[in-house]
Design goal:
The strands form four sheets. A six-stranded parallel β-sheet has the order 2-1-3-4-5-6, with helices on both faces. Strands 7-10-11-12-13-14 form a six-stranded parallel β-sheet, sandwiched between helices. A five-stranded mixed beta barrel has the order 15-16-17-19-18. Helix 12 runs parallel beside helix 13. It is built from 13 helices and 19 strands. With about 450 residues, the chain is an alpha/beta fold. The relative contact order is 0.08. Strand 13, helix 12 and strand 14 form a beta-alpha-beta unit.
């Protein structure tokens, strides 16, 4: 199969923050005259935006690079970008000797220069582009932010890096400390996304509630939200992800409750609920703050949806500590819960903690926590039956019968304000609705993670 010159294949692994960087890299490459090719075997430049957050993500990234390297021809160039490249740097070439270039996640906006250099650079020594300075976003020659839109929703990165001391997390060593983007740049990018037809803005950072700290701004996220909704009042949904316990302020609650555009949804990873475990995690250990703050939020926004995540099997986690977490989940009745088993990360303080938990115990605890949450999620979904909700249509699927055979009928895959892309459920709507449209539907059924609906006019 011939290689098509001036084409690139770009695969993004990991979280939504990586997806944002990948979309932006793609736009830079397109502006430089390269065109995307969905077939790796035909593309001249192969780029993997890797994830290096946890062991399973690192394994996936390395395996993906090795798979591409195994089939790479002398006419192709393989570049590793992203968190794994940042974390391991030059060592990455030991795992994948066929690499032609390694690009740090802190400087993804240099992708065009790296491509130009690897084309002129002779293997076997890869080009390592690993400057220590962190930048947050690329701009064009006029200083205007670059945006890339795929579908009706768009992630809007407001900061990068993290200054929190969590003992289990390698992100500060990978990404560096928190760097907030200037608010005027964020607002300008929101306008560009609005002009591109986006229906939903999703604000992301490693910690959105820390936005503005490095700029000397108090309540920076609340102020930024007010600026965004004023600048783009015609974007129906603005969603906030990745809040940090202890930093959801009363002003942030007020701003979210006051502005209809800001959907009543908050992703706030709590990680655990027993103060002893939280202190070993170097996380905020005031569980009463969580109770009080969620009560304030639910009072201000009665339709509020809360998503959180927990880690089980953290070193030293006793049966009593895990039971405290279970009781907390039953008490708080979260709408969405994700649960992960702890995996040690080299270079983090948690990796040297004593009293590791056996792997089978970790898995059993994860399964028990999720089985505890599932009836709660189902009950909260069942409360919506009969209600009318606006949903954002993302695509379509053909239904099948009990034997898995196509029925010839089509359903629409949509999300309500209660569902963040990729991590939450769907609203399954009868019929084929226009993709990208925001449409009212009536909820007719509920499952643990998904809802069933018909158009509200039906």
């Amino acid at each position: 199969m011939p290689i098509r010159k001036n084409t690139y294949y770009l695969l993004s692994l990991g979280c939504a923050k990586n997806t944002v960087d990948s979309h932006s890299m793609a736009q830079l490459l397109e502006e430089a005259g390269l065109h995307q090719n969905e077939q790796a075997a035909q593309a001249e430049v192969l780029i993997v935006n890797t994830c290096g957050f946890i062991a399973s993500a690192r394994e996936e990234s390395i395996e993906t690079l090795r798979e591409l390297a195994a089939h790479k021809t002398p006419e192709q160039y393989l570049i590793a970008a992203g968190c794994l490249a940042q974390r391991f740097g030059k060592e990455l070439a030991r795992h994948v000797p066929q690499l032609d270039g390694v690009l740090t996640t802190r400087r993804w906006m240099d992708i065009v220069d790296v491509v130009r250099q690897v084309r002129a650079y002779k293997h076997p020594q890869p080009l390592f582009h690993l400057p220590p300075e962190a930048l947050t976003v690329g701009t064009d020659e006029h200083g205007v932010p670059r945006v890339a839109v795929q579908g009706p929703s768009a992630y809007l990165k407001i900061a990068d890096g993290c200054r929190r001391p969590c003992a289990f997390c390698a992100i500060p060593s990978i990404k560096g400390t928190a760097v907030s983007r200037p608010p005027e740049r964020i607002v300008e990018e929101a306008r560009l996304l609005r002009d591109a037809g986006v229906q939903e803005l999703i604000l992301i950072a490693q910690d959105t509630t820390d936005y503005g700290h490095d700029l000397g701004v108090k309540d920076g996220l609340a102020q930024l939200l007010e600026q965004i909704v004023a600048a783009v009042p015609d974007i129906p949904w603005v969603r906030v992800m990745y809040a940090y316990p202890g930093y959801v302020t009363e002003r942030l609650i007020e701003v979210m409750a006051t502005h209809e555009q800001i959907v009543p949804y908050l992703d706030i990873p709590l990680q655990h609920a027993d103060p002893r475990t939280l202190r070993r995690m170097r996380r905020p250990a005031n569980v009463d703050w969580v109770r009080d703050t969620l009560a304030k939020m639910r009072a201000a926004m009665p339709s509020l949806t809360i998503r959180t995540t927990f880690i089980v099997g953290y070193p030293g986690e006793t049966d009593d500590e895990f039971e405290a977490l279970l009781r907390f989940v039953e008490e708080m009745r979260f709408d969405r819960v994700g649960c992960f088993t702890y995996s040690p990360e080299d270079g983090t303080p948690a990796a040297t903690l004593p009293n590791p938990v056996e792997e089978d115990v970790k898995i059993a605890r994860r399964d028990l926590l999720m089985s505890t949450q599932q009836p709660i999620s189902l009950a909260r979904n069942q409360q919506l039956v009969g209600q009318v909700l606006d949903v954002l249509v993302e695509g379509h699927a053909e239904t099948t019968d009990e034997d898995g055979q196509p029925t010839g009928e089509t359903i629409s895959l949509a999300r309500s304000y209660r569902d963040a892309p990729e991590i939450d459920g769907y609203v399954l709507v009868e019929g084929k609705l226009p993709t990208g449209a925001l449409i009212p539907v009536r909820i007719t059924g509920a499952m643990v993670y998904d809802l069933i609906a018909v158009p509200a006019t039906a």
